[in-house]
Design the sequence.
């Protein structure tokens, strides 16, 4: 490898490094704080923490409300992920395989729920559920939470699958067809294996997105609780703070792990910028440089 | 076995049918996701838009489907709503600028200075906080900023006593924190696309780093900066959780949320929820002119 020629002087490079370090500290201090406070043995939230213990984990675990909220969050995340997987990959296949009128607007439509301000998506779904209640007796329930979550999770799966489909060559599919496999067999034995990790990554990201969503959930959940909602409703109560700390810690870990795995699975992919074709060189260069593909969620 | 064959032949026939009829195949693929988005999402958006023109009966608090611009008149004439809108937009603008200033050096470092290994790690560390719960990160800031929290403790140690808890400063800080990665990623993408040779040409012709940055890098990175600013601006406009947790002032989102929950004045809430949409539409139009969408 030849030595890079910098146009930046050493002083500039050092300044950039300091600025970067500062931003990284800024980004991670709150997360470290959450981890530390989960083990705070005192009820009060003061700093510094005097004594560390794991006693509040047990208390939170035995709290019926927390358990129910946890079970709800898991159910919602799994159901929303399943829906998003099916709908997102169907859309990805359609966009990848066909040229049709309005093709460009599809990714725009899919990204709309996370591009518009969260309050708008929440408000819109809220009025739709209210109308559904008057017309055919729809009520706020886990089902309505799932519908809302699935709506903004579709784009995550879609982005991952479309990016993968672009990278897999179509000659494999053609070879399979030439050898006499029908469409389903080709899908089962050729297409599916080649997009599997993208599907898994998309599912993990969708799960993480749904598991900690609060803005839209507040509008679609009625009286049902999810973990983020439980945190939201309890964090002002001084008595509940230690448990809130523990639940917050669990939520952070619960979304960190799937996202980390997903990033590893799609490390060599450029999962963003749908709708661009001249990317071959870019992908190869990124791959050589080992650059991961940042996929961007909505809070 | 016989069943197997029958199923096989059915699958084969179906597959052949799909193969011959491209439109049917396309409809089968596109129907479910587009149907979902049109019914669930666009339908809901249209409803939101319609509800903004209905009204709430002031006596019974029932929603009446009578058309009119009353809600918008309330919003325009009520000085409270004007103040809230201005406050929201003002903080959103401040957050956007702050995030650009914070994100640019990091993105520059990642794109042009860092070794590939460091770059990978850096990008991963910028992305990871995005995916860890938004609410929990907010809660963490509430803990940090509270009266006896880490920030005041640190400020005390270095002899400063400014209390920022529950103020607009706190909201500004927390929003800047929350959206920083969204701003950093598009700027990084834009910077990374600038060919090295451009910069070398610039320095070879005698421009210093400062001049090259100003005359070559910044113009080329501008679409990325604008793209990042869309996120910071839009997300701040639509948020109602941060102001309630770390601040004590109302934002557009808070008013909408209160009107949905407590006051049950859905028409007014819908009308006010359209305000960020309109502002964002204008912002996006401007952004498109600056080529931000090519940078996304």
Sequence:
């Amino acid at each position: 490898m030849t030595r890079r020629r910098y146009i930046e002087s050493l002083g500039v490079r050092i300044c950039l490094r300091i600025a970067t370090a500062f931003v990284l500290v800024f980004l991670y201090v709150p997360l470290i704080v959450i981890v530390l406070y989960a083990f705070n043995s005192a009820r009060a939230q003061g700093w510094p923490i005097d004594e560390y213990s794991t006693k509040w984990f047990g208390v939170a675990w035995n709290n019926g409300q927390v358990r129910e909220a946890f079970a709800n969050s898991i159910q919602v995340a799994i159901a929303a992920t399943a829906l998003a997987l099916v709908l997102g990959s169907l859309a990805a296949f359609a966009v990848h395989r066909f040229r049709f009128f309005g093709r460009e607007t599809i990714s725009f439509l899919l990204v709309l729920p996370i591009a518009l301000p969260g309050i708008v998506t929440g408000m819109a779904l809220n009025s739709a559920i209210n109308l559904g209640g008057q017309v055919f007796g729809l009520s706020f329930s886990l089902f309505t939470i799932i519908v809302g979550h699935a709506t903004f999770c579709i784009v995550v799966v879609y982005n991952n699958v479309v990016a993968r489909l672009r990278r897999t060559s179509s000659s494999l599919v053609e070879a399979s067809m030439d050898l006499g496999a029908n469409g389903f067999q080709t899908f089962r034995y050729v297409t599916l294996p080649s997009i599997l990790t993208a599907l898994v990554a998309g599912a993990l990201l969708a799960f993480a997105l749904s598991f900690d969503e609060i803005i839209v959930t507040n509008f679609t959940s009625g009286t049902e609780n999810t973990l983020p909602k439980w945190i939201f409703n309890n964090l002002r109560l001084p008595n509940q703070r230690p448990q809130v700390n523990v639940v917050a810690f669990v939520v952070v870990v619960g979304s960190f792990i799937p996202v980390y795995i997903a990033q590893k699975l799609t490390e060599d992919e450029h999962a963003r910028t749908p709708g661009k074709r001249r990317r071959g060189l870019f992908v190869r260069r990124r791959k050589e440089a080992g650059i991961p593909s940042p996929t961007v969620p909505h809070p | 076995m016989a069943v197997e064959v029958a199923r096989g032949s059915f699958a084969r026939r179906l597959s052949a049918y799909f193969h011959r009829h491209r439109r049917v195949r396309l409809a089968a693929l596109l129907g479910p996701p587009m149907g979902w988005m049109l019914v669930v999402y666009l339908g809901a958006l249209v409803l939101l838009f319609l509800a903004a023109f209905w009204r709430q009966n002031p006596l019974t608090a029932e929603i009446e489907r009578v058309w009119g611009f009353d809600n918008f008149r309330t919003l325009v004439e009520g000085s409270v709503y004007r103040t809230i809108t201005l406050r929201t937009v003002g903080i959103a603008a401040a957050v956007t600028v702050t995030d650009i200033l914070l994100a640019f050096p990091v993105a520059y470092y990642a794109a042009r200075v860092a070794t590939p290994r460091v770059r990978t790690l850096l990008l991963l560390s910028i992305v990871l906080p995005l995916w860890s719960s938004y609410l929990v990160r907010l809660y963490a800031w509430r803990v940090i900023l509270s009266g006896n929290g880490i920030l005041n403790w640190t400020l005390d140690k270095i002899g400063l006593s400014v209390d920022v808890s529950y103020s607009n400063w706190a909201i500004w800080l927390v929003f800047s924190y929350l959206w920083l990665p969204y701003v950093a990623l598009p700027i990084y993408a834009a910077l990374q696309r600038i060919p090295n040779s451009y910069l070398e040409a610039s320095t070879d012709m005698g421009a210093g780093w400062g001049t090259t940055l100003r005359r070559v890098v910044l113009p080329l990175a501008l679409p990325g900066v604008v793209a990042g600013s869309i996120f910071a601006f839009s997300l701040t406009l639509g948020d109602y959780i941060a102001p309630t947790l770390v601040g004590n002032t109302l934002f557009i989102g808070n008013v909408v949320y209160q009107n949905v929950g407590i006051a049950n004045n859905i028409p007014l809430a819908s009308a006010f929820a359209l305000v960020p949409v309109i502002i964002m539409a204008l912002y996006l139009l401007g952004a498109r002119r600056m080529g931000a969408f090519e940078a996304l």
